[in-house]
Design a protein that fits this description.
By secondary structure, the protein is an alpha+beta fold. The protein is built from 15 helices and 19 strands.
Length: about 625
């Protein structure tokens, strides 16, 4: 057995696949078609039985409906008798005549019409179209071929249930009068006249329909099976020829892939077996190389999982430093973090011995960094002096790799090498490192955002509106939006009049309540798109987007009026406050947003000096300084 196994494993992959294919076809053919025939026979029998039961239930429903019609007719004539329109004898005669007229088809057989019979509960047969010889005779003691007392069973059924189905044996209309046919009838009892009304259907008629259905079904399945066998044989033969040619091509291709994989593995990944190699053919070679790829991928996965679970970004940077130094054996490198505003770079240091190899200007103006500006790799191996900001040109080579998140550069990794280091080995390291950096980029960005959220909040904790920090960060976006839309924006500087007196008289808790009430008034008076910022202690800035001068003044006046009318409940006492508002228009008054804010501040002080509780539009004459 071992010799056979050894012999089989030593054969080419083409031989193994073709032999396995032929053996599989034989097994599948025998087992598959055997099971197919067996399940079809089983399914057919089940389908026939289900069809038969369904047919019986359908006929039961039909027969019951016919009996219900007959009963309705009997009740109708009985009512005529009760109303005095007919004598009881005439009513019974008309009812019998009506019942005789009810003839219906079963299974569409026009040569065999079913009927309704009529008897008394004492066993006297009143009407039986199939056995007219029994009419007016007592059949209570008549038995069918199975020895069942037919009418005694019927009487028992109607007395216990009033109606129901019974099974028995009876002669068939237009059939052999000497033969007894199995039959199912539905009976109902009409108490006033002591009549038992019934009708049924013969199971032999159902059997004919079932036999026809079964013959057609079995023939269809037989033809389908035969066709599938023939078609399957032809397909298998064609597939065998195609498969042979395909395997011949694949084996040649696998040899080429094995050589390419071996070269890639030698340059990029470390060997480590993960899947057992059970053969020494082309597949065995491919599996061996694949195991090395899996090992490298596993390292990437573990690295990403580890940094995702790290508590802060500094820990992530430390792991990235260790990875570059220990795993890739690169001793000289730098990592730069791009600020969100895209204005400057932050030099990341972990051990304190990272030497900046670029000009200091890149830290102030990140656009001087070629990797940030182009969002592409910068490689001095390919082109000398590719980046003019690198200080060690001619002594060191550098490769700068931007780490992209959503199309933007978030971090730059700079690798520095001696001029004489082997380019082929370095390229292999860089390719591998870029895989790790691609996985690390979104993690670093996420942790950096969380870090900034932890450092500060953008909302004032007392009033819930935006704070000064938000204004600092949002102002570039606000300016760009106004310029892009080619519109104007209103800048309102709002100050609460005599606010210091509130704190001095009532205390800071009351002052806080006044601040919150005033903010609510301001928020009510502005639009949803407008932005309210707490600029200082009792000073607020409102940025009105897409307004002209007239609308800005109207909104300012609405704020002033609303604040003036708002009651503030202070320890059971009602007080009211007023505000002074200065208004400027950006970029009409100045293309510098912060200068417009200053103009609003000047206008606000002018409002205070002229009596407070006013809205004052900035005028150039109010500005006495030479420069902003």
């Amino acid at each position: 057995m071992k010799d056979i196994k050894k012999w089989y494993l030593s054969k080419s992959i083409k031989f193994k696949i073709i032999s396995a294919y032929i053996l599989s076809l034989l097994i599948i053919g025998i087992v598959g078609y055997g099971y197919y025939v067996y399940t079809n026979i089983k399914s057919t029998n089940k389908e026939i039985n289900f069809y038969k039961q369904k047919l019986i239930e359908t006929q039961k429903t039909s027969v019951k409906s016919v009996v219900n019609i007959a009963m309705a007719g009997i009740k109708n004539y009985y009512e005529e008798y009760k109303d005095g329109k007919l004598t009881e004898k005439e009513a019974k005669a008309e009812a019998i005549k009506f019942i005789k007229s009810i003839r219906y088809n079963t299974f569409g057989n026009i040569n065999s019409l079913d009927y309704i019979w009529l008897a008394t509960s004492k066993g006297v047969m009143i009407l039986d179209p199939a056995r007219p010889d029994l009419e007016n005779k007592n059949v209570l003691n008549m038995k069918d071929k199975n020895g069942v007392y037919l009418f005694k069973e019927m009487v028992r059924t109607i007395k216990s249930e009033g109606s129901g189905f019974i099974s028995y044996c009876w002669v068939k209309f237009n059939g052999d009068k000497n033969k007894c046919y199995p039959k199912i009838s539905y009976i109902e009892y009409f108490y006033p006249w002591d009549w038992v009304v019934g009708s049924g259907f013969y199971l032999s008629d159902i059997d004919k329909t079932i036999d026809s259905f079964a013959s057609k079904t079995r023939f269809r399945i037989a033809m389908t099976t035969l066709s599938s066998v023939i078609l399957g044989g032809l397909i298998s033969l064609i597939a065998a020829l195609v498969f042979y040619n395909l395997i011949s091509f694949v084996t040649k291709f696998l040899k080429r892939v094995g050589k390419i994989s071996e070269r890639l593995v030698r340059e990029e990944i470390s060997p480590k077996l993960k899947i057992p190699v059970i053969s020494h053919d082309e597949i065995g070679a491919l599996v061996s190389h694949f195991n090395k790829f899996v090992d490298e991928s596993y390292k990437v996965v573990i690295f990403k999982k580890t940094i995702e679970e790290d508590a802060d970004i500094n820990t992530v940077y430390k792991r990235l430093f260790d990875l570059i130094k220990d795993e890739f054996n690169i001793k000289l490198f730098n990592i730069f973090e791009v600020d969100n505003s895209k204005h400057y770079l932050k030099h990341i240091t972990v051990y304190g011995d990272e030497k900046l190899m670029c000009k200091q200007e890149i830290l102030i103006n990140c656009s001087m960094c070629r990797a940030v500006r182009t969002a592409k790799d910068v490689d001095s191996f390919l082109e000398k002096e590719v980046c003019l900001s690198f200080n060690a040109t001619g002594i060191k080579n550098h490769v700068c790799i931007p780490m992209l998140v959503s199309g933007s550069v978030g971090t730059v990794v700079q690798l520095i090498f001696d001029e004489k280091e082997k380019t082929k080995e370095i390229k292999g390291k860089i390719k591998r490192l870029k895989i790790f950096l691609k996985e690390a980029a979104p993690v670093i960005e996420a942790k950096r955002l969380l870090e900034r959220l932890r450092e500060s909040t953008l909302r004032d904790p007392l009033t819930g509106i935006y704070n000064r920090r938000f204004l600092d960060e949002f102002s570039p976006t606000f300016i760009a939006t106004v310029k892009r839309r080619n519109t104007e924006a209103g800048i309102l500087m709002i100050d609460i009049d005599f606010f210091k007196q509130v704190n001095d008289i009532y205390g800071h808790n009351v002052g806080d309540e006044v601040l919150k009430t005033v903010v609510r008034s301001i928020s009510r008076s502005v639009r949803e798109a407008d932005i309210v910022v707490r600029f200082g202690g009792e000073e607020f800035i409102v940025l009105l987007q897409d307004v002209n001068e007239k609308l800005a003044l109207e909104i300012a006046e609405r704020i002033r009026s609303d604040v003036e009318k708002t009651d503030i409940n202070i320890q059971g006492n009602i007080i009211r406050k007023t505000v002074s508002i200065g208004v400027s228009i950006f970029p009409k008054d100045s293309k510098n947003l912060w200068q417009c804010i200053k103009f609003s501040d000047v206008a606000m002080y002018s409002a205070k000096e002229s009596g407070r509780n006013k809205v004052v539009r900035f005028e150039p004459s109010m500005w006495t300084e030479e420069n902003y």
